[in-house]
Design a protein that fits this description.
InterPro entries: FYVE-type_Zinc_Finger (IPR052113), ZFYVE21_C (IPR032031), ZFYVE21_C_sf (IPR038632), Znf_FYVE (IPR000306), Znf_FYVE-rel (IPR017455), Znf_FYVE_PHD (IPR011011), Znf_RING/FYVE/PHD (IPR013083). By secondary structure, the protein is of the alpha+beta class. It folds into 2 domains: 105 residues, Herpes Virus-1 (2-Layer Sandwich), CATH 3.30.40; 106 residues, PH-domain like (Roll). 23% of the residues lie in helices and 32% in strands. The protein is built from 3 helices and 13 strands, in the order αββββββαβββββββα. The strands form 4 sheets. A 7-stranded antiparallel beta sheet has the order 10-9-8-7-13-12-11. A two-stranded antiparallel ribbon has the order 1-2. β12 and β13 form a beta hairpin.
Length: 232
């Protein structure tokens, strides 16, 4: 096993919430991941935290695996996949959390694959006026943005501070816009200064336009999840 494979190795663990497949080393965890929440202690929730139904021998209490709050069966009956916490199987969640997790399913099922497959952009570093044609993709462990052309860059996702998606075709109603690039700011390890990169879709590759737009849309969603995981 290589050093990279060893760092990315995973193990199966059991928690009160269910089985999880997690990285053996915490430093290898996905930047989009969320930690399991602590459960509200049973003694602190005599009633459902949604509908206020009193718990008794008939009305049992359940904990939402995403928020850790305490609910009755009616308010916490859905079992939904929760890949951001590395659960192997769908887990019990309250209605509000289940809705959030269901919306994230598209990212994990589709958009994450788009990011890993990559797309081609003209990349301009800093104040340079010489863009370089590069293939940009997310690493398989989701921890790096990898850029390959005549040059090679690996940007650690957790070092990214801002992402601005560039669009064209704006209308007053907000429709018919198309993503054509992005501006990325990140910190180089060991430096407090921000480095900027501009990504522009290659207009001379017509077959690349749709792929680039899809990749940028996926990157926009990834950025939202990244900010959410930082705020937890």
């Amino acid at each position: 096993m290589s050093g990279c494979e060893a760092r990315d190795a995973k193990k199966l663990v059991r928690s009160p919430s269910g089985l999880r497949m997690v990285p053996e080393h915490r430093s290898a965890r996905s930047p989009f991941g969320l930690d399991e929440p602590p459960w509200v202690p049973d003694k602190e929730c005599p009633r459902c935290m949604q509908c206020d139904t009193k718990f008794d021998f008939i009305t049992r209490k359940h904990h939402c695996r995403r928020c850790g709050k305490c609910f009755c069966d009616k308010c916490c009956s859905k079992k939904v996949p929760l890949p951001r916490m590395c659960f192997v199987d769908p887990v019990r969640q309250c209605a509000e959390c289940a809705l959030i997790s269901q919306k994230e399913t598209e990212f994990y099922d589709k958009q994450l694959k788009v990011l890993m497959n990559g797309a081609t952009f003209f990349v301009t570093l800093g104040t340079s006026d010489k863009p370089e044609l590069m293939v940009c993709r997310l690493s398989n462990n989701q921890r790096y943005l990898v850029l390959d052309g005549d040059s090679h860059y690996e940007i650690e996702i957790i070092q990214i501070s801002t992402v601005q998606i560039l669009t064209e075709g704006f209308t007053p109603g907000g429709g018919n816009t198309r993503a054509i690039g992005m501006i990325l700011q990140y910190k180089v390890p060991g430096s407090e200064e921000l480095t900027q990169m501009k990504f522009t879709a290659s207009e001379d590759l017509s077959c690349n336009k749709k792929l680039s737009a899809s990749w940028l849309a996926a990157m926009h969603k990834a950025t939202k999840l990244l900010y959410e995981s930082r705020d937890q």
